[in-house]
Task: inverse folding
């Protein structure tokens, strides 16, 4: 936190009205959880920020013209699409460690849309805010026709297969006192139950799906390498290389 009003807004959004800076700053404050100790948990904010940052590039690779969309509504929806988790943390119904530990529910989407309206009714025209809310509420639907909702879903799904895939598992297991082996096991269980295959089916645009597949391969190789190092396989191999093929005899 403390990046300043509007600081960090990615290239591709610079032509939005000046109001976008205030919306960004408000979202950053909302999505950054401050503990009584003073520690600031930016997990959800970083996810929201990455989703916003990725959208201009997704539009480019999907061949969608930005002028076909309400970009201020899309910008707002991307910032607030998972804000329902924040409401639940602050009312005490869940811990901050539970954020994004499960797929975001329809009820949580509704809470996020409601929070966007509550915070931004004085900042956005009613039609723009209505489009942002609709995009958020539509995120869990397969047959959404709203273009802003389709793009937001693509960006959100892509980030779930990117940095957040392992980081969320690490956070969740650490909060329960579990170690690295639990994270590795959780990854393998997701593969066993075709979790990632089902996630790949959610992509609407072929270029983004191909990128998601590439990210998944990178993540899988990372987990395999980490598992090998956790078992000390490199050390065992190195030790084996140091043993003479024919030990000297007396």
Result:
């Amino acid at each position: 936190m403390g990046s300043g009003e509007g600081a960090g807004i990615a290239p591709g959004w610079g032509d939005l009205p000046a109001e976008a800076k205030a919306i960004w700053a408000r979202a950053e404050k909302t999505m950054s959880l401050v503990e009584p100790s003073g520690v600031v948990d930016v997990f959800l904010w970083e996810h929201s920020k990455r989703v916003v940052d990725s959208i201009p590039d997704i539009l480019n690779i999907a061949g969608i013209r930005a002028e076909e969309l309400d970009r201020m509504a899309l910008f707002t929806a991307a910032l607030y699409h998972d804000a329902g988790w924040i409401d639940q943390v602050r009312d005490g119904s869940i811990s901050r460690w539970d954020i994004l530990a499960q797929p975001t529910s329809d009820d949580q989407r509704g809470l996020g849309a409601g929070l966007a309206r509550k915070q931004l009714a004085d900042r956005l025209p009613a039609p723009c805010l209505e489009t942002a809310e609709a995009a958020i509420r539509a995120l869990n639907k397969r047959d959404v026709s709203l273009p802003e909702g389709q793009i937001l879903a693509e960006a959100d799904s892509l980030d779930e297969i990117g940095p957040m895939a392992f980081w969320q598992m690490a956070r969740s297991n650490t909060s329960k006192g579990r170690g690295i082996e639990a994270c590795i096991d959780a990854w393998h269980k997701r593969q066993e139950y075709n979790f990632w295959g089902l996630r790949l089916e959610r992509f609407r645009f072929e270029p983004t799906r191909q990128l998601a597949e590439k990210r998944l391969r990178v993540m899988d190789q990372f987990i395999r390498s980490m598992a090998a190092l956790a078992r000390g396989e490199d050390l065992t191999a190195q030790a084996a290389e140091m043993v003479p093929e024919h030990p000297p005899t007396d």
In short: The first helix runs from residue 19 to 31. Strands lie at 33-34, 40-41. The radius of gyration is 22 Å.
